[in-house]
Amino acid sequence: MASGQRIPARMTAIAISEPGGPRVLKPETRDVPQPGPGEILIKVHAAGVNRPDVQQRKGAYPPPPGASDLPGLEVSGEVAALGDEISRWRIGDRVCALTPGGGYAEYVKVHTGSVLPLPAGFTHTEAAAVPENYFTVWHNVFERGGLTKGETLLVHGGSSGIGTTAIQLASAFGAYVITTAGSREKCDACLKLGADRAINYREEDFVTAVKEATEGKGANVILDMVGGDYVQRNYEAAAVEGRIVQIAVQAGAVASADFSKIMVKRLTHTGSTLRPRTVEFKAAIAAALEAQVWPLLGTRKVAPVMDMIYPLTDAWRAHERMEEGEHIGKIVLDVG
């Protein structure tokens, strides 16, 4: 292992003491991980907070085999040490990275295929808000969903980290963007980000609103993190040959639906998770992002929407904020 600075043997990390509410997130001292072949060690300056972290804390989303048991799926920081077989990165490089776990800590080891340079002009707290959402949206909206210029995207949860990312990227690549959100304030925020139509789902039926906004055609791609009774309604809101991409099931994993809609409209209902995928798969997404999206980040044509920043030791407060559902954009931990 190559390192250019004194790396301590121990570090502060936020562990899940037992499944439960936000207060089960406890600071503890852990050994600093050692990077293996193809891995780098990052001195973490900031870590993003995501819905899967909350699910892991509750005991509903265990880490994949071989991953850290600590929560945290994205970080930014500096390269502190290199494992064997590393050619691109050097000690001291400013980077952000997607991790399979372990981000809520002062150091984390990451496979080099999931590492990207800090976007030009970004702070570490901004950069930590990028990897999980941008990897997820790029794969599910543009690769799996096949969204193209001139098509209509319906994204549910438009004020979430995923939603704000999907709105900006779809708009930047020439799509017509419709989103749902739960308040006028959140709808206004979505419109400012580039959404063409924002639907307050507490006041309007999104199926009717989508049909009206598209002259009866429906949405070509629907990015859904709700599930439950949204499944049937998504089928109704989709255009002929529409693609519904499921990335979460916050309202329930079991639903009753009229599957004749799939046949009549020739719909595709697909979905994916990111965390357990291979390092090769994630590296391919990283390469696509660096080529297609990093230039947009560098010019601020797209950028993460920042909600709140908390100290690492107040991770429980960050989880409370997320579960309250009032945030707009990303919640980030400042690691120092």
Automatic annotation (TrEMBL):
<dbReference type="InterPro" id="IPR011032">
    <property type="entry name" value="GroES-like_sf"/>
</dbReference>
<dbReference type="GO" id="GO:0070402">
    <property type="term" value="F:NADPH binding"/>
</dbReference>
<dbReference type="InterPro" id="IPR013149">
    <property type="entry name" value="ADH-like_C"/>
</dbReference>
<dbReference type="GO" id="GO:0016651">
    <property type="term" value="F:oxidoreductase activity, acting on NAD(P)H"/>
</dbReference>
<dbReference type="InterPro" id="IPR013154">
    <property type="entry name" value="ADH-like_N"/>
</dbReference>
<keyword id="KW-0521">NADP</keyword>
<dbReference type="Pfam" id="PF00107">
    <property type="entry name" value="ADH_zinc_N"/>
</dbReference>
<dbReference type="InterPro" id="IPR020843">
    <property type="entry name" value="ER"/>
</dbReference>
<dbReference type="InterPro" id="IPR036291">
    <property type="entry name" value="NAD(P)-bd_dom_sf"/>
</dbReference>
<dbReference type="InterPro" id="IPR014189">
    <property type="entry name" value="Quinone_OxRdtase_PIG3"/>
</dbReference>
<dbReference type="Pfam" id="PF08240">
    <property type="entry name" value="ADH_N"/>
</dbReference>
<keyword id="KW-0560">Oxidoreductase</keyword>
<protein>
    <submittedName>
        <fullName>NAD(P)H-quinone oxidoreductase</fullName>
    </submittedName>
</protein>
